[in-house]
User: What shape does this take?
Amino acid sequence: MDNDINSAAPAASQVNQPSQVGPGLPPDCIIVLPVRNTILFPGTVVPLAVGRERSKADVQAAVLERLPLGIVLQRDSQVADPSVEGLYPVGTLANVLRYVTNPEDGSHHLVCQGGQRFRLLEPLAGHPLRVFKVEFLSDRNRSDAGTDARALVLLERAMEMIGLLANAPAELANALQAIESPSLLADTVAGLVDIPLERKQEILETLDVGKRLDKVLDAVVGRIEVLRLSREIGEQTRHRIDQRQREMLLREQLRTIQHELGEGDESQEEVRRLGETIDRSEMPPDIATHARKELARLARMPEASTEYSMTMSHLEWLAELPWGLPPVQPIDIAVARQILDDEHFGLEKVKRRILEYLAVRKLNPLGKGPILCFLGPPGVGKTSLGLSIARAMGRPFVRVSLGGLHDESEIRGHRRTYVGSMPGNIIQAIRRAGRRDCVMLLDELDKLGHGMHGDPAAAMLEVLDPEQNSGFRDNFLGVPFDLSAVVFIGTANQIEGVPAPLRDRMEVLELPGYTDVEKQQIAERYLIPRQLSACGLMATQCELDDAALRDIIRHYTREAGVRGLERQIGAVMRHVAARIAEGAALRVSIDAAALPGILGHRRFESEVAMRASLPGVATGMAWTAAGGDLLFIETSLTPGSGRLMLTGQLGEVMKESAQAALTLVKSRSASLHIDNTVFDQNDIHVHVPAGAVPKDGPSAGVAMFIAIASLLLARPIRHDVAMTGEISLRGVVLPVGGIKEKVLAALRGGIKTILLPARNAPDIEEIPLDARGCLRFALLETVDDALLEALEVPRE
Assistant: This one.
């Protein structure tokens, strides 16, 4: 910025045209300094700050070489290097009275006195400085009776304006009275009066002294009216302001100005509109009475007070909430079945339970049905099932994410005593939905936190309890709100993460992972069309054959859901879109051989054969929040003193399973034909790979027993066998959970035979038929059954 100070001071006498032009420039050429936000009038003194590098060079050359310098206002203050069109045509010659540079910040400061006016003609070509050819301008009609009369009136009005200015120096009035030239008086007063720069530039460009005096006089008269009105406003409002309300001075003055201009009081208009909204709302009578009482308090409050904004926000929330209950819409079960079948493949048990839920709602709309909680790994369709339920019921759908919440106020709301307080997520979601009978999905219930500001899970108890939520009380609202008409649906990845009291209020529906066949159907029905649309492709432009799709499922994703599968399909579609967009092809067909060039090398291969090729390596099955997974148990025998070493981030329960497995092997050493001295003279090391991942649980007991026995017997374990089950010291195989997820993970890993506890036999019915057809199940009563099924037959 070239100048920061918009001020002027009168000179003692009129400044004449420069007597000579500095060396190195023609007589009609000067250096031009563009400035922002300041106009230099002839006879006035103005300080300027020069910041632009080119301007610094121009000013230094003008001062050191005594070259003439002209000050010109640029049209756009944001332009760093204005062109000829970006400058006003008329400027003022400057006599540099003082020039100072600051070596600390590199800024340049100068004090200029205005000289003669000039008009820009054209820039001087080839000169390194900003040099223009100019035409020097002279005043017209300098002295006659009319001009002198105007000058006298202007002097009187200028003295009146100075009297209205706060803290105006007395020397200013004396300096004005000492000016004899009407032209200099007009220029000096124009520099003093606070008017827009465009008007000042217009005055600068006016060469007729009489017309210039008229324009300056109009500006001074207008400024006097503003100053006088400002003083009257200050006097009218001063008596209403006490010590406690001093901070409201500016707002009170603004209100008085609006009254003087005839404008209505906006705050009162807002109060009136808010009252109309409260009257139209369907609040219960007691809540409506409370709202009108608060509205009356609001009308008496000063608008600038903090309580005003709090009360206004509180009443707006009360008025905009959907208090009334719309008519119950009948539920068409056939349509609901069609929606679920169209939008979700498989999940027959879950869809059957949802239809039963909707049927009960249809027959008893006012009944208090159970709260469903969808439990399953990520990407299996929990959220989309909630959306389908909302569509089937004809109600709005709203999602509330609970993952990571650790403050009870996020559920119950903040009290209005705090600045910036808001209602809780439940009330906010109902306001977004616009209906009190919406379908609300409570996402990630198992990831609720617990902090120093209360327990959100405890606050959710009232929300999900049909006996209590009809009078749910949000701290911000301060009045009860009926949540009984809301259809709550929860989701979670792990049931262990959901607090027991909260779990007791919900009916849990498990959504297991998908098989490869189900994933292929889901991809063909939903994922591929969705990604084609997202990439702007038509089905005829891209063909992804079945072999390529199976390859993506098996070798580029390993998950229980289909979220990663959709990302990989999207990557393929984007590759096709890029080729079609650049004109390289009109139609692209993707087969399995083309996938490495698009998605890179295969990310997942079957590790079963490689890991089970040596004695002491067993394949177990584990359950995780993302679905099932294979768990490899590796053992090694080294000379030592009989220690058992465990590595791989094992939890306490899993360490106990390893100790129980070793004890069981020792107790059966005679029947297994194992020399007891092996245990005393060697150390057994049990390692579970993926050491950075914590592992725990008792279900790897069978796998650990088989791994240790295989190591000591030097008999390899069959590479296509996976096992799960807890063991006791008597050798009994105990049942475990997560059978369906574990079996599906084993199928994805290339396993052919599954060893399960005999008591888990009923869980086999939950496994899809296509998966059961690819596997052989062996039921284990004791670890002896596991040895017969898992160990390879010794060669003769």
Observations:
- The chain has six domains: 9-136, 145-234, 266-320, 333-510, 516-599, 608-790.
- The domain at 145-234 is CATH 1.20.58.1480 (Methane Monooxygenase Hydroxylase; Chain G, domain 1).
- Residues 74 and 83 are 9 Å apart (CA to CA).
